[in-house]
Amino acid sequence: MNIRNITNDNRSFVSRLGSFGVLEYAVDKSVSPYNAQTQFFMAHMSVRRRQLVVNLDGSNSVTVQAGAMQWMAGSVEASTNVKGVGDLMGKMFKGAVTKESAIKPEYNGVGILTLEPTYKYIILQNVAEWGAGIAVEDGMFLASEGTVQHSVVSRKNVSSAVLGGEGLFNLVLKGNGVVALESVVPYEELIEIELNNDTLKIDGNMAVCWSANLDFTVEKSTRSLLGSAVSGEGLVNVYRGTGKVLMSPVAPTSPVMSAVSNLQAKP
User: Which domains occur in the chain, in start order?
Assistant: First the structure.
């Protein structure tokens, strides 16, 4: 099988890790006279289409978000990997509490799998480099190699969910392999903070992902609740222990990405 024109003068791979490659469009040429001007300025501001391309050689598999597949070529098969009613109920619970798809199809075989394009940035991470695992912000998971284990971990206190804006549960990825995450911020702009039995406090849910062994709580920014109110900071998300945090310099729900989402929804 020969596949031509995956890459060209307008489309190229900007990053690779494991069996994953991130394909980026320099300019979106599939436009109409009605949105050409908008697409022109989007390209110059790095708001571009990106796709995850997976090479399957028979020895590996990949788990992706439901509905993310665009096309596949070769002897590639998909399975739901549901082992019974109990397993189905467990997967539905995990999907409900982490805002991920309940059933994530698994693809294996020999060939190429390409996912639907997105305007978000696709960040590739080696899960093994995160030690005890990597906790992922809700809705960011796109795909992972089959050797990566998925689990759901609850917060140690209810205040984390009610006050921190992070949710009571998070998807945790462990083992060996590569994971692809969707981010509104490119990897080169993410701030990486390594904690060595230390503390990180963030005003807002700006942590993209963090080491699963870190303790997460929500605390007052000052010693008293009145002081926190007067300072204007209120409550902060606190990460304690030894591990890493990837932090976005801007809020994940930025107005720019909201506008992009609206644009994607238009016919």
Answer: 11-259 (3.60.160.10)
- Label residue 58 left, alpha or beta by phi (over 0 means left) and psi (-120 to 50 means alpha): left
What is d(CA 125, CA 89) in angstroms, rounded to the nearest whole number?
A: 29
- The per-residue pLDDT for range 200-234, each reduced to its tens digit, is 998 877 888 999 999 888 777 665 444 444 444 56
Q: What is the pTM of this model?
A: 0.80
Does an H or E element contain 152, and which? strand 148-154
Place of tokens 């289409």: 49
Place of tokens 């406090």: 201
Distance CA 71, CA 40 (A): 27
Which bin fits 218, alpha (ψ -120 to 50), beta or left (φ > 0)?
Answer: beta
Note whether 180 and 144 are within 8 A (CB): yes
